[in-house]
């Protein structure tokens, strides 16, 4: 009826206006947040399934917003991507990690994994920027790993860029594997180094469901294609045992450690390598 549609239409218009306004101001906030160093990194250890030791960490960004408090990346990363702010934000994240790890003693071969949005690769002189990152990390005894989310990997330009990263000796992981649409064709056309299986597949372990067979298939395929396989979102010992028995190389999840602030990570690493 007429009144109902008027209410619906008005509601929609108000919602669109509201989200325009908030998105606009959030993008502005991101810009000033980078300048004011409101962003920081938390680090989640990545565990070798075979010996149980941490072989690196994944850097995950957090935002301490002056009014809103702690904001999750799920909320602001899409806005940063839309507002062309993901490039300065990612560059800031690289610099932040370099500072964080500058005086840290790590095991040889220790890796920091960074999440990098595809837009990042559209910058000019992207190669020299990655050479800078690689060399700066090398000076402090750390190697980078670049994680790229699969559903966004597709354009030929980005593929070429990723290939040149690998030529620079930087390893590239396909992130959230299994959640995109082009999974198999991508594996064929574009060889990468690491494959991170999305948490939603890890959750199926112990359930006799179709998706638990999908998990087995992904692991088998990864081995055949010589990928280093990482499982994310490992929460139970049952999951860890299952994945280890299937020769998954690395495990990451709350079972081992949550993402930690730098000071906590330092304590955690000391404690972890004592044994
Ligand atoms: P992701 O790359 O898939 O990161 C894994 C997410 O799972 C992280 O959420 C992590 O805190 C969470 N997680 C890890 N282990 C467990 C577990 O055992 N159980 C559960 N329930 N969750 C677990 P977070 O930190 O909120 O990040 C969300 C997403 O935001 C990331 O997903 C990534 O896509 C994006 N993101 C985070 N940091 C960055 C960044 O620096 N740059 C970019 N471009 N994206 C980022
Ligand atoms: Ca990731
Ligand atoms: Ca992931
Ligand atoms: Ca995920």
From TrEMBL:
What's in the keyword line of the UniProt record? c-di-GMP, Cell membrane, Hydrolase, Membrane, Transmembrane, Transmembrane helix
- The keyword Membrane appears for this protein: yes
Signal peptide (residue range): none
Show where the EAL domain sits: 23-273
Chain segments annotated as transmembrane: 1-18
Known EC number: 3.1.4.52
What GO terms fall under cellular component here? Answer: plasma membrane
- Tell me where on the tree of life, at the top rank, the source sits: Bacteria
- Reactions this protein catalyses: 3',3'-c-di-GMP + H2O = 5'-phosphoguanylyl(3'->5')guanosine + H(+)
Q: Write out the GO MF terms.
A: cyclic-guanylate-specific phosphodiesterase activity
> What is the topology of this protein in the membrane according to its UniProt annotation?
Multi-pass membrane protein
UniProt KW Cell membrane keyword:
yes
Location in or out of the cell: Cell membrane
Protein's UniProt name: cyclic-guanylate-specific phosphodiesterase
């Amino acid at each position: 009826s007429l009144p109902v549609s008027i209410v619906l239409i008005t509601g929609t218009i108000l919602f669109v206006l509201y989200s325009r306004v908030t998105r606009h101001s959030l993008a502005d906030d991101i810009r000033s947040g980078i300048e004011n160093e409101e962003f920081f990194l938390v680090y989640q250890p990545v565990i070798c399934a075979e010996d149980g030791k941490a072989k690196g960490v994944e850097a995950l960004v957090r935002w301490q917003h002056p009014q809103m408090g702690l904001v999750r990346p799920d909320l602001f990363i899409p806005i940063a991507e839309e507002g062309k702010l993901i490039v300065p934000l990612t560059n800031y994240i690289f610099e932040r990690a370099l500072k964080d790890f500058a005086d840290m003693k790590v095991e040889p071969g220790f890796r920091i994994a960074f999440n990098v949005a595809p837009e990042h690769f559209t910058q000019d002189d992207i190669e020299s920027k990655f050479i800078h990152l690689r060399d700066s990390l090398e000076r402090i005894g750390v190697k980078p790993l670049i994680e790229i989310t699969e559903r966004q990997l597709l354009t030929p330009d980005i593929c070429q860029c990723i290939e040149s990263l690998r030529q620079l000796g930087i390893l590239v992981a396909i992130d959230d594997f299994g959640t995109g649409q082009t999974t198999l064709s991508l594996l064929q056309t574009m060889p990468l180094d690491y494959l991170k299986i999305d948490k939603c597949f890890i959750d199926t372990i112990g359930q006799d469901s179709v998706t638990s067979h999908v998990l087995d298939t992904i692991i088998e395929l990864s081995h055949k294609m010589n990928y280093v396989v990482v499982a994310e979102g490992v929460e139970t010992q049952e999951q860890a045992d299952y994945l280890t028995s299937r020769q998954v190389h690395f495990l990451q999840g709350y079972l081992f450690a949550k993402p930690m602030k730098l000071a906590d990570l330092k304590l955690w690493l000391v404690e972890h390598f004592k044994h």
